[in-house]
Amino acid sequence: MKTDDATYSALNSYTKLMRAAESITGRTSRVMAEAGLTISQFGVLEALYHKGPLCQRDIAAKVLKSSGNMTLVIDNLEKNGLVRRERDNQDRRYLTVHLTEKGTKLITAAFAAVQTAIVANMSVLTQHEQHVLGSLCKRLGLQGAAGPA
User: What is the CATH number of domain 28-143?
Assistant: First the structure.
């Protein structure tokens, strides 16, 4: 099957984007693992660290995971004493997830280490190149929300 230039370019760019993302994710996830966290657990703790207490649905939206997956992740974080759930007094169905003191200490240290790893990985690009890459990725992400699957 012969592909035209536009198809080849799209597939080639996609492959490079995915390989680069997987490579950087692999290197930064090792730093998370050293803190005893999965990528999803880190994402939940980071969202709570920077945004404050959130409901489970909002956390799932922030870390781009299903709410079903979030239940398991938050259950495990709660078992480890890193987060706590609180029911709303007005609506008992509504749960807010909060960082505990232990969770705050862990994510403070883990976030600093992950931030250092990300900066080191991205340092192969100039700041201008990082800005261009960020803009292009944002454009791709926003287009995907409205465009074809």
Answer: 1.10.10.10
